[in-house]
Amino acid sequence: MKEAALGFFDSGVGGLTVVRAVQELLPGEDLIYLGDTARLPYGSKSPETIRQFADEDVGFLLSKGVKAIVVACNTATAHALPMLQSKYKVPIMGVIVPGVEAALADPEAERIGIIATRGTIGSHVYQHALATRRTGLMIYGAATPLLVPLIEENWISEEVTKEVLRKYLQPLIDKGIDTLMLGCTHYPLLVPVLQEVLSDDVRLVNSATTCAEHLKRMLEEMDLLISAKSEGSLEIYLTDLSEQFEELAKRFLSQPPGRIRRAVLGAV
Ligand code: DGL
């Protein structure tokens, strides 16, 4: 089982920030990524729909024989992780708890802002996970649905993106946040511009890197780390193939994504 691949899924390209972090931390592992591009975005859909999609995504990855699965999408983690963990025997982890633990690793964190899709903010999963781990926190969530299209358009350093960020973040800045959690797998790409818009006192918590660290610990504990020393592979499957994806994937991974295959869910 140690030699089997790790599975990841997301609505589209965003989960590749998690894949990239895992490639850096666990370079020997083989990775299989599913992007449900035919049905994105997940961030604006109902919890029931997301649970159904996530269940089908996991079914596809299991058909590839993966040894563990990372829900590399905050919205799917928020709505579907408990259901997936109780339904399947394979270890399945999400991106929210690793981010929350990283935010709280700073004992001085008191006023925490979260930016994410409407679905993630509306689920209150971040807010609940933070509040149950530390009492007395002030927690402020903001749904920021315009950010994913701006990132995909590669308008990251454009003035319009800074303006949108200022508008979304001003209420959190007014509350005096000391920590900002990036609650969407696309947002690590915004770090340089977030650093421009926010004061240096605000700590950014990036769920992609913390998720990779969490995954490593989980694999160690379960004795599932690959023993091979050679460089691992990455296979990417999408439910809809578009030319645009390859370009996007290159930016998210910082390298060409290699061959991209079509996934047909429920028919594997
Ligand atoms: N991947 C989603 C997330 O992390 C954002 C994109 C979408 O809405 O599908 O919440």
Short synopsis of the structure:
With 268 residues, this protein is of the alpha/beta class. It is 45% helix and 17% strand. The protein folds into two domains: 6-94 and 209-262, Rossmann fold (3-Layer(aba) Sandwich), CATH 3.40.50.1860; 97-207, 3-Layer(aba) Sandwich (Rossmann fold).
Name every ligand kind in the structure.
D-glutamic acid
- Report the average pLDDT across residues: 95
CATH architecture of the largest domain: 3-Layer(aba) Sandwich
What about the largest sheet? 6 strands, parallel
Strand proportion, as a percent range, falls in 15-25%
Helix count, DSSP H or I runs of 4 or more residues = 11
Residue share in helix = 40-55%
Distance between the termini: 21 Å
Assign the CATH topology of the largest domain: Rossmann fold
The SSE string, one letter per element, is: EHEHEHEHEHHEHHEHEHEHE
**Helix vs. strand class:** alpha/beta
The overall strand count is: 10
Explain the layout of strands and helices.
Blueprint: E1 6-10, H1 16-25, E2 31-35, H2 47-63, E3 68-71, H3 74-87, E4 92-93, H4 96-104, E5 111-116, H5 118-123, H6 125-133, E6 138-143, H7 147-152, H8 159-174, E7 179-183, H9 191-197, E8 203-206, H10 207-221, E9 234-238, H11 243-253, E10 260-262
Parallel strand pairs: 1-2, 1-3, 2-9, 3-4, 5-6, 5-7, 7-8, 9-10
Bound molecules: D-glutamic acid (DGL).
Describe the structure.
The two termini are 21 Å apart. It is built from 11 helices and 10 strands. Strand 9, helix 11 (243-253) and strand 10 form a beta-alpha-beta unit. The model has no long low-confidence stretch (mean pLDDT 95). With 268 residues, it is an alpha/beta fold. It is globular. A 6-stranded parallel sheet has the order 4-3-1-2-9-10, with helices on both faces. It has helices spanning 16-25, 47-63, 74-87, 96-104, 118-123, 125-133, 147-152, 159-174, 191-197, 207-221, 243-253; strands at 6-10, 31-35, 68-71, 92-93, 111-116, 138-143, 179-183, 203-206, 234-238, 260-262. Helix 1 packs across helix 10. It has 2 domains: 6-94 and 209-262, 3-Layer(aba) Sandwich (Rossmann fold), CATH 3.40.50; 97-207, 3-Layer(aba) Sandwich (Rossmann fold). Bound molecules: D-glutamic acid. The site of D-glutamic acid (DGL) has 17 residues, from helix 3.
